[in-house]
């Protein structure tokens, strides 16, 4: 793993949260995007070398809607940038981590993504990200 790619925050309202983070960070979101397959709309903020992703559910059955219903708004996941997502998935599987995806899928911000189950990472949802190129 090369670095933390971003921190994902589940929010009820992307427009309200965008306003809050614009005030907090002093910059507007650099990108908004919908990932229909995940039932989510996202926005991204840069703060120096750090990236924050805000996630709003677009469907009641989406993972973000379920997360907010169960836990409320807040940190949803930590994403790590990886060089080769397939080999990293295989390595982590051999180390005993539980993968939520058997193959990477298309994510926001032009990434291939895969997730590790929080049961195997002390309650933290971990996302692996590789530039889709």
Automatic annotation (TrEMBL):
Pfam families: Glyoxalase_4
Keyword Protein biosynthesis: no
Protein name: Methylmalonyl-CoA epimerase
Gene that encodes the chain: mce
GO term, biological process aspect, one: L-methylmalonyl-CoA metabolic process
Domain VOC: 3-131
Family, similarity comment: Belongs to the methylmalonyl-CoA epimerase family.
EC number(s) on file: 5.1.99.1
Cross-referenced Gene3D superfamilies: 2,3-Dihydroxybiphenyl 1,2-Dioxygenase, domain 1
NCBIfam families tied to this protein: metmalonyl_epim
Keywords assigned by UniProt, alphabetized: Isomerase, Metal-binding
CDD domains, A to Z: MMCE
GO molecular function: metal ion binding; methylmalonyl-CoA epimerase activity
